[in-house]
Write a structure and sequence with these properties.
Blueprint (H helix, E strand, L loop, with lengths): L3 E5 L29 E5 L5 H18 L17 H7 L1 H31 L21 H14 L4 H7 L6 H13 L10 E3 L4 E3 L1
Antiparallel strand pairs: 1-2, 3-4
Length: 207
């Protein structure tokens, strides 16, 4: 901590002819104080209480700047927080994540466009517009409730299969999963069972 200079007493006056002044042939400078005066540096004592107070302020400022809830750093008990409260706590982090996702998506697409141009010069045709970028925010979620809600909506006929797969936390490639489901439905027999083995030698399908 930076010390503060403190002067106690009055400075001696210097006459018109230089009475009372320090001789100019002396090296350095000095203070001319009255009798009983003093000069010193005052500084605060940095004990563990002071350090703890400064550390808490800096830590909270870091959490505020990074939009990180305090519960993630064990500052509060998370056992009495509901999922809705956790979503509200991570609201600012979600907004920041969406902004970062936009910038990262634009930057990656620009890089892919450069790759497409370089490959085109070599005679390799590539369409980068067919590439789909998926960003997943690492936010605490109750995946069991999400699956139950999707199942309820699907049973009601209020949501399509593709939308169900898009909201499914366990599915990352929706197009590939749709193709697998179509292939699986095509391999079913009339009884609704899935054919697991094809007898290619006899042309019969075994169940």
């Amino acid at each position: 901590m930076n010390p503060i200079p403190v002067v106690v007493g009055q400075k001696l006056g210097i006459g018109k002819n230089g009475e009372g002044a320090i001789p100019s042939n002396l090296v350095g400078t000095g203070l001319q104080l009255d009798d009983g005066g003093s000069f010193g540096f005052a500084n605060g004592q940095l004990d563990y209480k002071s350090f703890e107070s400064v550390w808490k302020v800096l830590k909270q400022a870091l959490l505020d700047i990074s939009c990180t809830p305090a519960v993630s750093m064990n500052n509060t008990d998370i056992s009495n927080l509901s999922e809705t409260s956790i979503k509200l706590l991570f609201g600012l982090a979600d907004v920041r994540g969406n902004l970062n996702e936009k910038f990262m998506r634009d930057g990656i697409m620009q890089r892919l466009k450069k790759f497409e141009k370089l490959l085109g010069i070599k005679g390799i045709g590539v369409d980068v517009d067919e590439i789909e970028l998926t960003f997943i925010c690492s936010r605490p979620l109750n995946e069991a409730d999400i699956i139950d809600n999707l199942k309820t909506l699907r049973d009601m006929g209020a949501i399509s299969l593709q939308s169900t797969l898009e909201q499914n936390p366990y599915v990352f490639d929706v197009a590939s999963e749709m193709d697998k489901i179509k292939a699986e439905k095509g391999s079913m027999d009339n009884t609704g069972n899935v054919n697991t083995q094809d007898d290619t030698s006899s042309g019969n399908v075994a169940k």
